[in-house]
Amino acid sequence: MSWRVALIALAVVAAVALLAWLLHGGGPQPVQQVLPSEELPTPTPAPEQRIVLLFPGGDGLLHPELRTVPFPKEPHARIRVVMRELLAGPAATPRLAPVIPYEAELNAVFVDSDGNAFIDLTAPPDSLQGSSTELLLAYGVVDSILLNCPTISAVQILFGGHEVGTLTGHLDLSKPLVLNKRFIAAS
Description:
Layout (H helix, E strand, L loop, with lengths): L1 H25 L21 E9 L5 E9 L4 H14 L17 E6 L4 E6 L9 H18 L5 E6 L28
Parallel strand pairs: 4-5
Antiparallel strand pairs: 1-2, 3-4
Helix pairs in contact: 2-3
């Protein structure tokens, strides 16, 4: 009987030792393949395309500004490019104002299966005033995205990661907005 106990004890000690060896990296190591730098694929830059951006003018309307930028095919990437350019502000004409009247950043972009885009901007540091401020901000963003991204049907703007009902009490921002050319100045 003692040789059986000794054999069982030896098997337990061997199993524990094997387990400890495997847990501390003694097992087979994965092989990593290193590709020479000349074999790494280089990303193809997006083709340049002319886009239209809408900025408020002193007349209370949105005025188009054309820019040529690298413009990817994916809708969420296109929206990011449009928003980056909008946030940079108007470049061609000093009579135009930024569409977002405060320092803002684009936090996130999401496109759902129905073609609705949701963009999250930095919330205003102070409450905004005036119906034209709210209308030009909302439709400057929404119309700029929709004019440049034909697969998007509507845009909802979130602020600070939250849905807001309104910014100044004049426009319902709790749902996605569609293209509204009423605020775009005639060329």
